[in-house]
Amino acid sequence: MTNRNLRYSGLGLAVFTAGAIAACSSSDPGTPSAAAGSGSGGAHAGGAGGAPSTAGANTTAGSAGTGTAGTGTAGAGTGGTGPGFSCANTKPTDAVITDFSNLVANPTTAGQYTFMGGVLGGTFTYQANALTLDPTGMVLNVKGNVKDYDGFGVYFNTCYDASAYTGVSFNIKGAVGSKGTLNFRVQTNTNTAIDAANSKGSCVPTDPTNTYPDCHPSSFDIPVSAGGSVVTVMFSQLTGGMPIAAVTGNNVVGLEWAFNWDPAAGTAGSGAGGASGGSGGASAGSGGKGGAGGASGGSGGATTGTGGASGGTVGGSYDANVTIDDIKFVGGPPAGGAGGASSGGSSAGGTTSAGSGGSSAGTGGKAGSGG
């Protein structure tokens, strides 16, 4: 698979500005740099001038009073904690991120949707108007012609600390090109370029117009089949992020799925086709009975070569059609699991006391084990 560095990861974030899901908006900002403190110079008035002598008296004029200039210490200002925005460390209230039953149209970004309730956020796509999102039937259908670096995803309105979980799962199926894979990515606040419009990101890129080399999410290739399946990606499987490769789930701001795209995919095929046609022409010429026939075969080879070149112009574009559902965090402790084990142990301990107590305790132990 040709998995090109996707400069449009940031685009997903840019789309976040739109309403709730194409624009993440509520990450807690970092502490801003405090303005330098100021201190005014102290003032001290000079002494009053001596009083003039009374007329007619032979007295000496009073000397001018003197005063020491006051001093003031300049105030000191404390700088901020660093550039960008810190993670709000919001804990997910549920493992379910979205089952797409709670989508409403984004009022400010046509073709995108926001989540109402649960994990707040919305949807985004990389290229404007290239992919169509359809949430009909409590699933999200994404389709269009992939002819550039493209993909889709969901953003969160806050930065989540999901480190109590070990990964993400989702149900996915469809057609994603000849490679049969998508590149799944977990967006983290640390690997997101500073986005003042959406109050997200703490990564400082060398070139603000091309943030990918310095700031991009870790990823993992996933299979996508026509029949579909539940795919689970562990945080530990995600690699290649900048500036931090590892993902622990502690500062998640979004998820994305990138399509494979190779603009040179059609060119190699065109060259091979042309050569094959020429070979056929030579074979006809050696047939002997008609040299003209051989020439005609050669002409056919040239035509084949032209067709191949035309294919190369189209490049690696293809029609994609993906359906995704039930996105959730996985690997968290099951509710009440620890309590069940504790209860079972206590009940089993009671079996040594009395026959009736033991019977009751045994039942309790069984129930605890089930918990």
Word description of this protein:
With 371 residues, this protein is α+β, with helices and mostly antiparallel strands. The protein has helices spanning 9-15, 265-285, 291-314, 337-349, 355-370, and strands spanning 96-98, 103-105, 113-115, 121-125, 131-134, 140-146, 151-160, 167-175, 181-188, 218-223, 229-234, 252-259, 318-330. The strands form 3 sheets. Strands 1, 5, 6, 8, 11 and 13 form a 6-stranded antiparallel sheet that branches. A 5-stranded antiparallel sheet has the order 4-7-12-9-10. A hairpin with a 5-residue loop joins strand 5 (131-134) and strand 6. Mean pLDDT is 69; it is low at 1-80, 267-314 and 335-371.
